Amino acid sequence: MQFRHLMKLNLAGLMLSVVFSVSVQAAVDASAKKADVKAVVADKVVEKNSAEKIVNTVCAACHTPDGNSVITLNPKLAGQHPEYLEKQLTEFKSGKRANAVMSGMASTLSDDDIKSLAAYFSSKKLTLGQAKTNGAGSLGEKIYRGGIAATNVPACAACHGATGAGLPKQFPRMGGQHADYVQAQLKNFRTGERTNAPMMMAIATKMTDAEMAAVADYIQGLR
Ligand code: HEC
Ligand code: HEC
Questions:
Q1: Is there a contact between 98 and 193 (Cβ–Cβ < 8 Å)?
Q2: Higher pLDDT residue, 164 or 28?
Q3: Residue nearest to atom 8 of ligand 1 (CA)
Q4: Tens of pLDDT along 88-147?
Q5: Which of 20, 52, 185, 208 has the greatest number of CB atoms lying within 10 Å of its CB?
């Protein structure tokens, strides 16, 4: 009798502990799920902040925090298509686009950093510029809109757009870019110092210094 009583108690205890452990497990599962969700949300926040953090600690010195660089050999990044920015950073990192300064900067960036930095600068508002002498009716405008027939240079507008807005995923935004930077890139395409754009290399090899200077000045004021 006493023995049976003990068995019953034990059985009840066993059942209780089964119920208890099941519910503990459920609670553990639920809190793990919550933790997962929290981790994902935290990652997103960290990602957003990390682009801003990298910009403020590294990029801003040369490109300013909003990507409208004031030093004219440093390109404006504001409003540029994210795919283009991503391509350039990836190619600085791999060495496909050679530049001592930017290759060093890009070498420490992860693919995620590159994506979020491209999105960050792309979302900023571009500050427009002014042409020095190549306004309406100038040589710069003629080259940009009509190309140079004698040497088979195509119109820049054909790819970079009438207002210089470019085409997402294909052609970079050009309007408002610093003339000094544009001219330097055209020269780099011509000498082969920049080799990551065969289309532009073919075009630049057919241009003189004076033509490059004129179209770069026009581009600075383009909108
Ligand atoms: C010490 C100055 C300096 C710093 C810091 C710097 N850059 Fe640059 N960046 C340059 C220069 C100069 C160029 C032009 C390179 C060339 O002539 O090919 C450039 C070019 C670029 C380009 C190519 C733009 C185009 O229109 O093709 C991108 C994108 C870029 N930088 C992003 C960044 C990011 C992101 C950071 C921060 C991680 C950064 N840069 C930090 C000086 C700098
Ligand atoms: C057939 C299309 C095409 C035409 C025409 C064209 N471009 Fe380009 N251009 C491109 C592409 C594509 C790139 C992007 C290169 C890359 O991905 O690195 C580019 C890039 C550039 C860059 C570098 C931009 C930067 O931020 O570093 C400059 C400068 C440029 N083009 C100037 C011109 C000028 C000036 C003309 C007219 C004389 C012209 N392009 C005509 C396709 C074209």
A1: yes
A2: 164
A3: 102
A4: 999 999 999 999 999 999 999 999 999 999 999 999 999 999 999 999 999 999 999 999
A5: 185
Sequence-distant (6+) residues with CB within 8 A of 114 are 86, 89, 90, 93, 106
Q: What is the C-alpha separation between 124 and 211, in angstroms, rounded?
A: 31
Looking at residue 20, its amino acid is: F
The CA-atom distances, in angstroms, between 46 and each of 65, 81, 187 are 18, 23, 40
Summarised one tens digit per residue, pLDDT across range 57-74 is 999 999 999 999 999 999
Return the ligand number nearest the Cα of 120: 1
Is the minimum distance from the CB of 215 to ligand 2 under 6 angstroms? yes
- Hey, what are 32's tokens? 């793990």
Q: Which ligand 2 atom is nearest residue 87's CA?
A: 17
